[in-house]
Amino acid sequence: MQLAATRIITDDVDTLVTFYERVTGVTAARLHPLFAEVRTDTGTLAIASSATIPLLGEDAAAPHANRSVILDLLVDDVDAIYATLQGVVETFVNEPTTMPWGNRSLLFRDPDGNLVNVFTPTTADASKRVAL
What we know:
By secondary structure, the protein is α+β, with helices and mostly antiparallel strands.
């Protein structure tokens, strides 16, 4: 089995696509007006309109309702990314912080309120883990 993508359901595909394009520096593939993918070498972030929910099953998902999943983005320099995200990110949860497990992390919310963790491992041991 292979994890193919993580999908966010949103009421505003265009806003969320633009946000993640600016955060990642990757141009999204717009497969349909209701769906886009931000593809990286290690994973895909899919963004779908809430208009697609009936295709999944009644009440299968709800936009703006996530309070338990964190999107982790590995970067070379979290402090440099923090500087570039000023004016892009509206809500920072913290400033770059070195975590006890060896990652330097910056947490913020996307326009739909989803939590995003941008991190850089600071030790050889931490570089072996994805996020934590």
